[in-house]
Amino acid sequence: MTDDPLVRIADALDRLAPARTVLPDDWSAPVFLWTADPDALRPVPHPSRIDLDLLVGIDRQRDTLLANTRRFAEGLPANNALLWGARGMGKSSLVKAVHGRLEGTGLKLVEIPREDLASIPRLLAVLSGRPERFVLYCDDLSFEQGDAAYKSLKAVLDGGVAGRPGNVLFYATSNRRHLMARDMIENERSTAITPSEAVEEKVSLSDRFGLWLGFHACDQDAFLAMIRGYCAAWGVDVPAERLRAEAVEWQATRGSRSGRVAWQFFVDLAGREGVALQTLR
User: I need a labelling partner for 34 at 20 to 30 A (CA). Which of 14, 193, 228, 245 fits?
Assistant: First the structure.
């Protein structure tokens, strides 16, 4: 260690200075992952996603989100979107599949982890000067007691004084319609001096999404249709009666029906049939 006080001061200032944001050298990747501490935007050249046509039983949600995203990609007005509802019914798969369908337009998808929401203003500063258009995407968004991270979302949903960059849109998925647990809402109402105002700030966050898309548990016909679609796409040839019997038994052992359960059954079936599941392009 040097004895020069000026060198020691310079080293100390370097340690105190915020880490430099890591940005991609090549912006041609279709998908990026943003992480904080240190801030970094990293390309994902081969994102994991399913073809849009394989998402069965959510036709209205699919068509609505696709139309909204297409308008944004074309430079037209579009809404931030909240996809909420039953687990495993294709919320996150739909966001990625819609982007995949529109990848040829140059639209970029940027995934931001729930724990890094506080860094959104810094991410917006990076993206606002870019010529590309970006959909920011946060999966499984929700807030717990004492969680103040929701305040960071206002920068992207409302824009604040500076306004939201015109080349950025925000999509989120959640199992909760109002992004917070019901018992948390009731607890704050019961202990507040003004119950009607106690949770207004947090609950109203979901109101800032211009587009709400609800996802609900599927029936057996839709469940089987999902599996048949997977079989057709990957060339898994199984007699119809056997497929139905095994699929029904699978969902009975799981105690639920959903797109996720259908996919898990198909993965098992494809493995037993000796069919490799290469990515569909």
Answer: 14
- Counted residue by residue, the chain has a size of 281
Torsion over CA: 151, 157, 162, 167 (sign): positive
User: DSSP alpha helices (H): ranges in the chain?
Assistant: 5-16, 59-73, 91-101, 120-127, 154-157, 182-191, 195-198, 200-207, 220-234, 240-254, 259-273
Low-confidence ranges of the chain (pLDDT < 70): 1-19, 144-152, 154-156, 158-163, 178-204, 279-281
Separation of alpha carbons 137 and 81, rounded Å = 10
Is the distance from CB of 179 to CB of 217 less than 8 angstroms? no
Q: Which residues pair with 205 in a beta bridge?
A: none
Q: 3-state DSSP call for residue 181?
A: coil
Reduced to 3 states (helix: H, G, I; strand: E, B; else coil), residue 160 is coil
Q: Are strands 31-35 and 40-44 parallel, antiparallel or unpaired?
A: antiparallel
| Nearest Cα to Cα of residue 147 among 192, 110, 105, 181 | 181
